Sequence to fold (411 residues):
Amino acid sequence: MKRLLLHTISSIGLTAAAVLVVPGTASAAPEAVAERAGQIEAYLHTYPGLTPAEAADRVDGQAARAALLKRLSTEHAASFGGSWFDARTGVQHLNVVGSGTAGFTGLAANAGLRVKVHPAEYTMDELTARTDAIRADRTAAGAGRLGVGIDPQSNRVVVAVTSAAAARSALGAAATDPAVVTTVTTAVPAVPEACHSRYNCSAPLRSGVALRQAGTNLCSVGFTVRDGNGTRWTVTAGHCMRRDGEIWSHNTVDIGPIGNAWIGDNIDVARIRMNRAPWADASGGWLYNEGNPNSPVALNSAVTRYAQIQQGDSVCLQGYNSNARHSCGVITHAAHPDYNGMTRVDFDGCQGDSGGGWYAPNSGNRTAYGTHVGGPLTCHSQYGWSVFSPLPALNAFWDRHSATTIRVETR
Fold:
């Protein structure tokens, strides 16, 4: 089983009450207020020099940044070379291949964003294709290679290796590719965060509640998914599964058998078939509501492209150890090479959070980003962190191994 590291968000000396007085929350629903407070605290933790008002500005601009990235990565894929957001200065950085600088600047200005455009050699689609090819090159995978990711600031694919001597053999066919560089690293092994010690909910099944097997709390619900034939599953982490076909439940009520597990590349995933009442009969696309467990909140959308996940944006975790103070963090690496392209967040998850859903609550419009894998053996530590399987990678895996299209349910 491949072992991966996780991260958690730490507590800082700012009270929840101090966060909530930032302008912009007075008329919001209680759950949106709590989410926004968590995002603000995440920015203040990761960037101590920010004021609460500056952190609120970074949170409130994320919806516009996300919309811009989706547009650039789809309508301008032939020239979009990746991005990152500098939360310290509030500047959105964009890479452009060719002569599209003015167009990129204009689109950002129309969205009300401060932007800096950089010339680049490779598009995000090209870099993504290269990472996929390197992961598929199994002849080089065992030659000192730890993982492969993308660094948007250098506009390169980065392969993490155990030593300089191992670099060339670990690259395989990509050894002469100028778009690929190596970094020597000793990654801390990620520890899957299942546990044996949250919550008892009725239908619908929602992201962030506890999953059980044989009566023991082990992992968390990520998202519910549906295929083209209408069959539905609950998604969790692959390392949670001990045997194919074992029955998993929530609140002592069986959901169905687990299977289709995969641990490798940049994903760690399994599916539980929802073939039993009341779960199978209820609607999908829901998140646990910390402020009111009997009133789940809607998941509105899901990222579909790697380019929509960028360094400097904030995301929140729905795991069964999440709470009002410990749930949100800032993305530090959209595709970390030490963890083979998984997304790294400045937030420390806990044992039992494995499989939980990572999402961005942009002004109450919640977007799925991926499912929790793990981190260090800490829980809500100030210096912890987490990694998660990015949703575009899960979609690609399902497309390869299912006869029909499988996607996260949204509302």
In short: The mean pLDDT is 89.
